[in-house]
Amino acid sequence: MPKRDLTVAMVGAGGDGIVTMGDVLAQAAAREGLNVLKTEAYGPQIRGGESSCVVRLSADPIYESGDAIDVVVVFSWADFARFKGEVMPAKNTVVLSDEADPVARNPEDLGLGAEAVWIKLPFAKLSTDSGAKGSKNLVGLGVLTALFGLPLATLRRAIVHRFGRKKAAVGEGALKAFEAGHALGQTLPPMPERQLGYTPGPPKLLMSGNEATAIGALHAGCRYFAGYPITPSTEILQFLDEWLPKMGGAAVQTEDELSAIGAVLGASFAGQKAMTATSGPGLALMTEMLGLASMAELPCVIVDVQRGGPSTGLPTKSEQSDLWQALYGTHGDAPRVVIAPSDVEDCFHTTVDAFNIAEEFQIPVIVLSDQLVGQRRETLDPASLVHAVRERRLPTGEELTNYSRYKETPDGVSPMARPGTPGGIYQTNGLEHDESGRPASLHVLHERMNAKRYRKLRPIRDGYTFHRRYGPEDAEVGILCWGSSKGVVREAVRRANARGQKVAAFVPQVLYPFPKNEFETFLKGLKRILVIELSYSAQFYKYLRTFLDLPHERTHIFKRSGGKSLTLEEVDAEITALFEAERAGERVSA
Amino acid sequence: MSETVTLPEFKPADYKTDLKPVWCAGCGDFGALTGLYRALTELQVKPWETVVVSGIGCSSRLPGYVETYGFNGVHGRALTIAAGVKVSRPDLKVIAVGGDGDGLAIGGNHFMHAARRNLDIAYFMMDNEIYGLTKGQTAPTTPTGDKTKSTHYGNPEPAVDPCELAISFGATWVGRAFSGDLKGTVELMVKALSHRGFAFLNVMSPCVTWRGDDQFKTLKAKQRQLPEDHDPTSRPAALAYTREREFVTTGVLYEVAEPSFLDRLAAVKVTALAGMPAPTVADVIKTFQPSF
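The joint structure predicted for all components is written out below.
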């Protein structure tokens, strides 16, 4: 029976074309209407150096990278060793390596079982013989196509499209390498049980989370972006720099993150929808002006694509440890909204929501993404990128007579005049101010204006609560997680229930204002609670404790540092351990 | 049939809010503020199409006293906010104001880059060579050896000349004024506000409280006008009037015509479009669909 799901890993040195190989495969699969999830990892080198790429293809929806690699193509064992623990073959993996590799490995080295298939192939030699020297990646792709029933005609078109755009001859050469690999693959023992089986469908979009974030901004009407390059968020700056000028907007690379947030607040004051994107260290620099946005009630969107921290930390790897910074960063009582995407499509929707909330409630909104969702590529249905857009409240003609910028209102939102409007003149301030915007420091007024600014959180909580719930209503174990952990947790919940363990999961999208009612509803009737996060100090668990009574003896935390994605194996093990503890009547301890 | 529309005529009082300045009696900033009212009047700038932006410090309170749109931000970041306003709304007139500490110490980096970009704003730096709001600490402009509340034994650091920095950073209009010379200040503010690109005006603005009466007297005694034959397009000629010890030379030190930041951004838009119609978001999304 053919497989509906295939996970391919590729590992090689700089120049082996790993990234291109993954790209071509993913593009072809998206063209066929398959679901794709692609992640990449690199060494610390600026250019070149070892890289690995994992592409999961499926006829069914997929939520995470998969725990079982069906096939791994290794061009260099020395480089494979550099991804220890990141590219993990399963017991029955098909391992295709280059016979010319000076480093020799055997199945036992990788801990493979007897069912594994170990094949050494002349990748480099075939590439040279085909006349397209340095194309062993395409030879490899050809072998994979023959062995696993990948779409031959579509891959051919994908290769010609990729290499033949500028010079037709380059495309032809590339195709020769691919055909040589394909011919070689056909001489190998067939593996009918490992063939990918699916019905082609309409083409899908293939994009990264950072690209989806940028598109969300464009869709929401953002026409001003200011940012400073920082891994792993830089793609957002680069993407908007390409498109905003074409759409009547502007993207500016500022001298630092202080300048980026300042410029965004200036643009917002001037009446434009504006955004910046950064990672943890950049958000740290922006926090003073995050307070200014809160105080002056300026709509703005700040995207934080989290990486490992503190300090420079792990710039290219994911972690969920900017949570407290996003929730609590800056001095004073500074209301803001924190919203977290959980996959690529979510990056689009959370960004549009972030603009909607920011503009409607004149409040800074942080989109707390991370490297895992920001830089991985996923297929999307084009119809999924639809989201209603809301606008800022401008003063009416009547409100412009004796205009008061910070006039008290029941929901705390005061109409915001756009410079250029006669009658709307006001001076805004980071100083505490009265309803007209004038500096004032009487404590009674400070209390009242704090109350006004915080009052906006309630309608946001009620109007924008969005969470995902997976698993049965009568679950015994309930998982609480956020952001990019969703994919693995969702799959783990599906598998647990399939084996008879009643597990559910709750994933909030808006983290602050806290969706207390929704959490409490979920927690009702649970025997055990499992909190899952990639933060060494358990920031999410501790945050939950400030709002929820999580009984100590029934709550278990799975937390660890980032640097490696959460795996199904880890979550599975936690779930199983909790059911065993429940059976044994043991207390678990948070 | 044509109709004659008479533009409203703005008087200095029309640019004045009814907020009373927090400044000490005799503060040089009063002169700068009055100068600004008059300069705006002279140019008949529409108050609602103007934005005055500042950071933190005594002089950064100024936007509150000007009846235009105003933004009193945080310390050192006036130019970043001004950049966001101007780039997103080229139709607005944007004026950044602040002190020497705000613009040269905490905000020094932004000064360099706003000047380098030739951002289309006027930047008026009220320079009193001291931190006034925090009550008398040393500034990057405080002369070496001066005793302040944070340099009890004499300032061990050399001072910078803001005009020298502005010229070297790439500002295309650089002038120096003395707020005690109202007529000269108005004249220079009008010129700065009429310049296309980054116009930097260093307004020497004495602090009677922390620098004493002497500062006013000394500035007045040292002030001299640029000679009539000064060539403002010459960088060496302009730099000759910076780091002066014996004099404070006022006037337009430097002025050159270069494409402004907005000019360059407009050119970027033309290059980006390459004669094609502006794409929609749907067009952008379509580029993510395999096209082979």
